């Protein structure tokens, strides 16, 4: 009883799965669309009719119409006429393949029917045949029928052939596709006819075919095409449409899909506690949404009321200003009117003057007329240059509310910032990691940012990925101090404002240098010509400008000249550990050598001006080529990388003095493009120096080096060229000067 009750409860709870998305009623002869959703056959025809497709709503089952579908045969008691069976005509009409004037078989451009799926809101292609090419979902029909029986939907099933009121049906006929009472069944299945061989079934409202038939060939489906994900018959299997497709028997597809469905269902049923917990979380989210929505409504209402209050106060102050201006002007105009009225004959000032003129006593007249004459003169002048004392226009009180109206029109909810865009040109890793970003043009502003970073070359820990976080970063750049050397960091950033946090930017991966960064300045006192070398004020850049002296020398000698090597050393020497530094070489440089060497040997060799035209001179080897046989096994005191005209030379000269190339680097005897920055990594204990692409940290060359004494960076110039040391990301170090192998603060 308990299991049966649970079954009834589960049947009652799944009614939502059995409703057609078009009519919102129980499925009736559901069709399976190419998108795997279902829809009633009648609803599909109606939808296609609304889309303007006429004649494409064929019956996928292509079954004969039941006796109940013709009104003239509704009841045998009303009419005993037997109409001819319209099986063939009905099949032709419903298939949509009948010929008619104006249609040609095998048209070059057949009409492709698109069906708007109400479930996924997408247009699915039905092909040329329309609904006639779809399968009926017989399994769904059986589930609907069991559901109707379990919940007794609609009550008793009535006979479809009785005269109203119909009797309760007692039998059904799959061949006739109708339900009958006992009397109607006997009348429609008389003895001695072919219909008498029809087997009666239980009454039902849904008559299904005995098996699933191919809509194209009316053959029973026997295989499943995995490529098309469609059931096919034997004839479909040999057609060109499925050539090369992976086709399996229906039994194999049935077993595989049943196992997958069973496994998934078992997992869901075994995690009912998780489902219930998530339901509780969702219900809590619903309650929180209701509360938060109400709070948001109140906040918006309060803000709008505040705007209204401000507008009302502003309106009152503006009206008060207009009122005061109006009263002032009225007072001035009224005073002017009074003054002019006093100029009328016999009144005011004029009348008084007329009376004064009647005075015959001369001293008294002079005394009174002197003051009166001044008033009369002013009145005469005002009369001649008449202007109203105040303007009657209030144009200066007009308001320009265009900007405010635009702001009010554009008033909207504050959006979270969009995902920032990492500025890859300004983001790099050196002694520290410098990350720079910007917001998209139309993004809402961000109050602050959150920067997250992690190493990708560490073993993965169980659980979610752990990010290190830098909160409330102001501005659009961040500095990450003390990164691990020889590591790969992935970084991302997101903005935050009052509306919350926005989306993360795309991840950016940065390689940190393979060794601690060596900070130094350029010291041009050894082997440098002030006429040809220009060192910047900050001593981090140098440019060789030998053009004019070289031109004058060539003009004097005519037959050639001796070129000199200009050398610039670093002011810091390395005596232990591993060090790394980077620089940028101007691609237009004629010949530049970047590397390291023993400080004593460098100062010895380059105090003079060597003759680089001599065949015995090789600045890479550190000694005259004539003595190479004696020192072939000793490590060279210099290691240089030759750069010229935007290329790096990895030729025989470089390899002979430098040793082997890096494992991942290019082979000797070739040139490679000059990267934006070059990196030099010195391992003092191992006596090795590596040249790297400072952007990708790809190895270019690895050389042996004599590290029996202090080693310092060196830059050689032959002809024009320029070198720029990479600036440290953090605080600039104090400038140091090395004299005789000892470093001291300047």
UniProtKB/TrEMBL annotation:
Biased composition (Low complexity): 60-76
This protein's encoding gene: TRIM46
Organism in which the protein naturally occurs: Theropithecus gelada (Gelada baboon)
InterPro entries per record: B30.2/SPRY, B30.2/SPRY_sf, ConA-like_dom_sf, COS_domain, E3_ligase_FN3/SPRY, FN3_dom, FN3_sf, Ig-like_fold
Gene Ontology cellular-component annotations: axon cytoplasm; cytoskeleton; main axon; nucleus
Name the record gives this protein: Tripartite motif-containing protein 46
Record-linked SMART domains: BBOX, RING
Pfam families cross-referenced by the UniProt entry: COS, zf-B_box, zf-RING_UBOX
Keyword Metal-binding (UniProt): yes
Domain B30.2/SPRY per the UniProt entry, residue ranges: 500-734
Places the protein is found: Cell projection, Axon; Cytoplasm, Cytoskeleton; Nucleus
